[in-house]
């Protein structure tokens, strides 16, 4: 708590100095360790695939006769709401449009080929890799807590390596890094979410887009999130997650009906195949020959953001996955949210790309000519990235249905904001109370407000750029903990299920004649 307090006070008193410090530290990390982020996240995905296909896949996260506490629908709803939520709404249109204009894999932007590559890159950033990070952390926590009866904290994953010393300074250090990463990872998402909500309210009701209004929104919505976390996972968090899924289905249906339906369905099928065909080379691409800034501020930012989120999402996933097998856990967490996320990205990003690709202008003589990139979405992204969502919905339908979709999108962002904040708060307090699944209510309130304060300071210290740099910085130390967790899980599984020596059956030779 002291570290967070010092950060909040320093950022409030010296916002310019805080912004400069963020830039310097994150710049050093990106300059020297970009390859490191790329390599370890690729390694995590390989680890998950190998583990799911191994003999360990049949082990249950709990006793051998344990069964899941939540049904599949509730489980997937909470997975998706906690793991992606705000960020997916924020970037689902903006990111494909950015890559549509330029990226390292195309010679010319604003073309049909550029649109395909734009969706491939976006799928890559929101596909298997982030969920592989969550699997590693969540599976480690669930295994050691529910099968080895250790506390539900990060330190328990280190038990096979350091034994009882997890209750000493080593364990405290691991948990502290997890709390640090969680607070800043969740705060990053809350900052993105409140920017999107402010733009939505401006679009709907004319509320001014300003830092002051965003700070008020952070305070109000964080208070609602704190009330939710006080009710626990089985009530507030679960109910809000299920509402999120139904609202998600509603807005996806709007896009499917009012958007270019055939193009979107074809793009989804084609995009998934294109992603699978390129996922291996993209996983290890480091832009070594040019070493440009594009990868640092896209791929590396995402990998760092996901790692800073991993203590929060991993522990939350662990808490709702007791009783499932390791294979079921990995396949469910890795595949289902990835496919749903790709569908979301196709319907939002694909609709925006189609509008820009097919836009035409008519001259005074009534003759139409192609005007790719001039429909208004590209301009919206350039002017204010948060306005891209509403520009797209308005272009799909500028009447009552388009307005209703804008309202729905804003409500959805707010609910994702709440579920991210309450889940993050619950995780932080669980870690700090040594794995107590029902931490004291006073701690939940205190840390709910602390996360809101960090988000507010990051908004004051530079907005989107400060949010990105904070995620990169917070993820760096915790990435080492994740690597140790992978090794600890590997050792523990081999200790529980050692390789059986083959039984040698003596061969009985026939008697010699």
From TrEMBL:
Membrane topology: Multi-pass membrane protein
Keywords: Cell membrane, Membrane, Transmembrane, Transmembrane helix, Transport
Gene Ontology CC, one term: plasma membrane
Subcellular localization(s) per the UniProt record: Cell membrane
Keyword Coiled coil: no
GO molecular function: transmembrane transporter activity
InterPro entries, per database record: BCCT_transptr
Pfam families: BCCT (PF02028)
Transmembrane segments: 35-53, 73-94, 128-146, 166-194, 214-233, 245-265, 300-318, 330-355, 403-433, 445-464, 470-490
Main location, first listed in the record: membrane
Similarity comment text for this entry: Belongs to the BCCT transporter (TC 2.A.15) family.
Protein name, entry field: BCCT family transporter
Organism, scientific name: Oceanimonas pelagia
Source organism phylogeny: Bacteria, Pseudomonadati, Pseudomonadota, Gammaproteobacteria, Aeromonadales
């Amino acid at each position: 708590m002291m570290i967070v307090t010092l950060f909040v006070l320093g950022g409030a008193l010296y916002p310019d100095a805080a912004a400069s410090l963020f830039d310097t530290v994150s710049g050093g990390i990106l300059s020297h360790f970009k390859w490191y982020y790329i390599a370890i996240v690729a390694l995590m995905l390989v680890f998950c695939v190998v583990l799911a296909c191994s003999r360990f896949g049949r082990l249950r996260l709990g006793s051998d006769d344990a069964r899941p506490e939540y049904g599949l629908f509730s489980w997937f709803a909470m997975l998706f709401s906690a793991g992606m939520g705000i960020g997916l709404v924020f970037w689902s249109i903006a990111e494909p449009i950015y890559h549509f204009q330029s990226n390292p894999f195309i010679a010319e932007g604003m073309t049909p080929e550029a649109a395909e590559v734009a969706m491939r890159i976006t799928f890559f950033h929101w596909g298997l890799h982030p969920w592989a990070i969550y699997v590693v952390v969540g599976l480690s926590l669930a295994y050691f807590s529910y099968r080895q009866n250790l506390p539900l904290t990060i330190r328990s994953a280190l038990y096979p390596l350091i034994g009882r010393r997890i209750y000493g300074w080593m364990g405290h250090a691991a948990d502290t890094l997890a709390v640090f990463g969680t607070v800043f990872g969740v705060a990053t998402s809350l900052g993105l979410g409140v920017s999107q909500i402010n733009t939505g309210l401006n679009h709907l009701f004319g509320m001014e887009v300003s830092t002051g209004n965003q700070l008020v929104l952070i305070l109000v919505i964080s208070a609602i999130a704190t009330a939710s976390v006080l009710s626990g996972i089985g009530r507030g968090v679960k109910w809000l997650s299920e509402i999120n899924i139904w609202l998600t289905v509603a807005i996806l249906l709007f896009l499917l009906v009012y958007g270019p339906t055939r193009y979107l369905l074809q793009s989804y099928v084609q995009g998934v195949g294109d992603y699978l065909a390129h996922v291996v080379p993209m996983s290890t691409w480091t832009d070594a020959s040019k070493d440009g800034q594009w990868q640092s501020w896209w791929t590396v930012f995402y990998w760092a953001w996901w790692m800073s989120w991993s203590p929060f999402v991993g522990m939350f996933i662990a808490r709702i996955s007791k009783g499932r097998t390791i294979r079921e856990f990995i396949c469910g967490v890795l595949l289902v949210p990835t496919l749903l996320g790709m569908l979301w990205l196709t319907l939002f990003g694909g609709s925006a790309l189609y509008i820009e690709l097919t836009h035409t202008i008519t001259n005074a003589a009534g003759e139409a000519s192609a005007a790719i990139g001039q429909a208004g979405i590209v301009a919206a992204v350039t002017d204010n990235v948060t306005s891209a969502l509403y520009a797209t919905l308005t272009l799909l339908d500028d009447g009552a249905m388009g307005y209703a979709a804008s309202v729905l999108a804003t409500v959805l962002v707010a609910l994702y904001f709440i579920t991210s904040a309450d889940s993050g708060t619950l995780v932080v307090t669980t870690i700090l109370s040594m794995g107590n699944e029902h931490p004291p209510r006073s701690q939940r309130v205190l840390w709910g407000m602390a996360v809101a304060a960090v988000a507010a300071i990051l908004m004051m210290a530079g907005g989107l750029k400060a949010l990105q740099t904070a995620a990169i910085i917070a993820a760096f130390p915790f990435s080492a903990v994740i690597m140790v967790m992978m090794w600890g899980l590997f050792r523990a599984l081999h200790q529980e299920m050692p390789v059986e020596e083959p039984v040698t059956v003596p061969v009985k030779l026939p008697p010699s004649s």
